[in-house]
């Protein structure tokens, strides 16, 4: 009928609102809160940046190329202007192909809809709807109402990713840091999973200290954190502890952290001024922030002081895990401890329990007395990239018992709990089994030249640890990765002196780091590798 055809034509003319705003799309925007060179669509770029551009790396930005008609964002540079300016145009682009999509009337196919999770209340309904051999994927109704709100942007981030600034109600979580000089800049955002520690100088005036925001606790906790970016779920920043520092540097931890102490001027002193803030963020394995706390150090400022030094720190911990200090992210950093652990019975992953409270590989620490029996329990951490050697002297008499002495020396060399595994990366997690390298333990016995001096009992006299590592990842920014660790115990036959005399045996412990990276061939330009650790959700939603 004619009225049906007219109604269909009217619906076709009334196209739905576009799901994707091409003016907001930018494929070359790679840096967070920084301007990408020659990226004309980067919202972080200003007029000063555009004046330095030579061309637009992405001149045209479009949405779905299969649509018959769509908006296109066109970017260009006016090089004749002084200085050069960026030109932005939003035009209608027509697809000349006869096989094009005129109306995207099935809106549910334009974005990923989270599936409904079965619960005791909706289980029967979901079973009736999807429990058969086949079910319909068609929507209940075709809604072409253009006044309906647009579906969420498919490109929006619904969780935090590494390096993304931590969002708050008004902007970002501030972590003041020095920028050009040593003076504090409050424009530095804290990045998710990026542990930082900064120090900077703040200009102060005792007369106005109660009005300087950066000296007040409220400046650092008054803005709640978004649990995930672009969400309405808020996480308040609680006060974990408050320590008060006197003018002579003595610190006193307050019994209660619920009291909010604001700066005030008393007898030409500025009291309760913030000298340090330590944030601690707890997150889930899916990138959602669930808890935030801050520890403060408050102090007094004398009238003569024109500036103070403030320190700021932030750390991240995944829920239901023990915080472990990292030695790199991801590769090891020279000078930081080598992380180690062991796999106890009943645990599927290494480091279920750590070898010590700092989860570090350790060796014998030399003491001033050089007495091996007195040095038992003294350990020094093995620092990545540092070849180390330490030792002590063992006094042997005619009354020395060999078997107890052998076990004691073994404890001195290896420690009470010698680890079985070493983390291949500086940020390896305990549950990542493939990120842990087993320690190969070897036992070598020194052969005595004279057969008359041979003994059935031998004692360990040295522990040698060799750590082999390689450069891993991109040639531009290689990461240090441990690939093999060997611990060699060398034993020798015990030779006891005659009665009434004594002799000393040196006992040593050493660590050697060996770079086994393959050197590039002369005249050969190597291609950058992509040997990187993929995110856990890289193939989402596919398995």
TrEMBL record:
Residues 8-122 form the Tectonic-1-3 N-terminal domain. One of its GO terms (biological process) is cilium assembly. Keywords: Cilium biogenesis/degradation, Glycoprotein, Signal. One of its GO terms (cellular component) is MKS complex. InterPro entries: TCTN1-3, TCTN1-3_dom, TCTN1-3_N. Residues 159-318, 328-515 form the Tectonic-1-3 domain. Belongs to the tectonic family. PANTHER family: TECTONIC FAMILY MEMBER, TECTONIC-1. Part of the tectonic-like complex (also named B9 complex). This is TECT1 protein. It comes from Pomatostomus ruficeps. The lineage of its organism: Eukaryota, Metazoa, Chordata, Craniata, Vertebrata. The gene is Tctn1.
């Amino acid at each position: 009928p004619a009225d049906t055809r007219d109604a269909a034509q009217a619906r076709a003319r009334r196209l739905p609102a576009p799901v994707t705003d091409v003016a907001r799309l930018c494929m070359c925007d790679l840096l967070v809160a920084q301007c990408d060179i020659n990226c004309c669509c980067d919202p972080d770029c200003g007029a000063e940046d555009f004046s330095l551009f030579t061309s637009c790396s992405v001149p045209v930005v479009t949405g779905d190329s299969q649509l018959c008609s769509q908006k296109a964002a066109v970017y260009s540079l006016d090089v004749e202007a002084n200085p050069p300016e960026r030109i932005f145009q939003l035009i209608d682009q027509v697809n000349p192909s006869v096989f094009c999509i005129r109306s995207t009337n099935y809106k549910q196919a334009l974005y990923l809809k989270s599936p409904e999770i079965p619960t005791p209340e909706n289980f029967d309904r979901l079973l009736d709807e999807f429990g058969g051999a086949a079910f319909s994927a068609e929507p209940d109704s075709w809604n072409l109402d253009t006044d309906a709100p647009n579906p969420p942007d498919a490109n929006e981030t619904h969780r935090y990713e590494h390096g993304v600034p931590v969002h708050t109600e008004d902007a970002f979580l501030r972590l003041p840091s020095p920028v050009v000089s040593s003076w504090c800049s409050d424009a530095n955002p804290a990045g998710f999973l990026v542990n930082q520690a900064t120090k900077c100088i703040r200009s102060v005036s005792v007369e106005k200290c109660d009005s300087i925001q950066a000296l007040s606790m409220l400046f650092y906790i008054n803005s709640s954190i978004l649990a995930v970016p672009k969400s309405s779920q808020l996480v308040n920043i609680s006060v974990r502890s408050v320590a008060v520092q006197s003018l002579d540097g003595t610190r006193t931890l307050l019994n209660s952290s619920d009291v909010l102490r604001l700066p005030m001027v008393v007898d030409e002193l500025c009291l309760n001024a913030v000298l340090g803030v330590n944030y601690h963020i707890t997150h889930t394995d899916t990138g959602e922030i669930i808890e935030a706390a801050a520890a403060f150090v408050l102090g007094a400022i004398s009238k003569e002081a024109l500036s103070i030094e403030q320190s700021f720190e932030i750390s991240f911990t995944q829920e239901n895990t023990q915080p472990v200090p990292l030695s790199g992210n991801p590769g090891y950093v020279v000078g930081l401890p080598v992380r180690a652990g062991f796999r106890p019975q009943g645990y599927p992953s290494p480091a279920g329990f750590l070898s010590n409270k700092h989860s570090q590989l350790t060796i014998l620490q030399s003491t001033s007395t050089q007495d091996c029996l007195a040095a038992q329990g003294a350990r020094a951490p093995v620092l990545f990239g540092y070849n180390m050697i330490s030792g002590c002297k063992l006094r042997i008499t005619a009354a020395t018992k060999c078997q107890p002495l052998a076990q004691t020396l073994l404890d001195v060399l290896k420690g009470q709990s010698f680890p079985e595994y070493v983390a291949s990366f500086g940020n390896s997690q305990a549950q990542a089994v493939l990120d842990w390298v087993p320690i190969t333990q070897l036992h070598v016995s020194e052969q005595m030249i004279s057969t008359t001096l041979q003994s059935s009992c031998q004692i360990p006299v040295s522990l040698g640890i060799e750590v082999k590592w390689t450069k891993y990842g991109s040639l531009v920014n290689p990461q240090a990765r441990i690939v093999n660790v060997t611990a060699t115990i060398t034993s020798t036959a015990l030779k006891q002196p005659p009665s009434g005399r004594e002799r000393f045996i040196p006992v040593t412990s050493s660590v050697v780091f060996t770079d086994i990276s393959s050197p590039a061939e002369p005249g050969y330009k190597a291609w950058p590798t992509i040997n990187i650790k993929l995110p856990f959700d890289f193939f989402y939603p596919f398995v």
